[in-house]
Amino acid sequence: MIMSNDAFLILFLILIGLMTIIPLFLRKFKIPDVIALLLVGMLIGPNGFDLLGRLTPLLSFLGTKPDVVEAHSLTLINSLGSLGLLFLMTLAGMEADFKLIRNSRRPVIALSVLTFLIPSVSGYLVYACFKADDFPGKLLYASLFASHSVGIVFPIIRELNLVRSLFGAAILISTVITDVASIVLLAVSVQIKKLSISQDVALNKTLSLFDYIDPKIFGNYFTVFFLVVVLLYFVLVLFLVPKAGGYLLKVLDEGQDGLITCFIFVVLVTVLIGEFLGINLVVGAFLAGLGLSRVVKSAGETFRKFEGIGYGFLIPFLFISIGMKTDLRMLFQSAGNLQIILLTVVGLVGNKVFSGWLALRLCGFSNVKGICAGVMTVPQLSATLAAAAIGKELGMLDNNFFNAIVVLSIVTTLPVPNLVRWIIEHYQLKFPAPRTQDEAFRITEEQDDLLRDCEIARLRDCEIARLRDGEMVAWGKCFSLVSEKKLIFKGPASAEMDFLPLVL
Known about the structure:
It contains 19 helices and 6 strands. By secondary structure, it is mainly α. β2 (about 460-470) and β3 form a beta hairpin.
């Protein structure tokens, strides 16, 4: 039975009203829109106040059965939420400037390695405490601990205007890298589990090519094969997508409405090809956005349209759909469940915060900024829940572990935006944007007068020093200038200082 247009319009009006009024009201209490939208989802969802279920019987006079209205509404919200996730990741790719990695190699590498290795080892050990002999399950739990939530991290970075900062760029880029690594680890654990499952057992099929190929044909080389597939996908997307975007921009004028439609088509094709190769849609959408970034940013109007469609309409449905799936009652299901939940939550939060702090401290950042980075890597949401659902379907996670992951997603997601905001405001943290190379060579008149007669430049403990057009550029730990055996200038090179221009 089809839902009547009148019933649809009434429910949609109520939903849009809640999406508008509740975030506006909660902003007075400095509650981020992400949290507000999650609360809207809990309000209308079946695991919360079930407002949707309470309203649908009232619309029966319009000739549509309540269960039909509710089913169609849930399908609509979840579908729009899926599109919202695609738009969110595409916009994250468009706004993530990987040129900044030139100036943030150390924090990106440190964050990527440590926030993956330390939590994954922790997840492996937590699962081993309860099921020591289940190797695929331990790998799966390791991947769940290692995964990040770009869908939560990016809105925080964007809302706090940290996208162009060295700090924000390092966290965003490392989050994507870590997510890719966790997806690979997830795929490995799933394939190992499938090797032990009889081929007679029916599993739900997806678009992934690996669902239709006997995993035994890969033998012990599945990991290597999958890594090669991922690498080739990355290369092809970053090569072909910019060319496709550039061609479309030549064929269609910037102001034409068809241009945005064509760009969306490119994104969807990229995502579907990734899904076919077993690569999560989050990664595919991000790469598509990254490939289109230069093309779209050169067409400013097109980029604003992307933002308008995403943040103005689709992305809010993503967080509403997540809120609808949360069930806080799981906390009180059983004493045994509480033990697993406690160890999972404490183990993940502790290791994420520690690994983020350690990574940035090794790169010269302050303790507070290190802790702030660690807190921002804590949220576990869509990718984690999806991976847990796969594990439950394959019998790799029982109900207790699955409930623990669901609770983990809730308790690590809800407080993080406010906590990060409080840390930044309380400690008055500043996050300067890295200077470009052209800016690096630009010096003040005062500096020029001071250094013009310098005959000797001594660089101490510098990693790199090079001469360009009569100017010495150096970056490392510290530097000093000496003229006529007299020290005239000395200064440290911090992690947030990109270039130190010295005129010889």
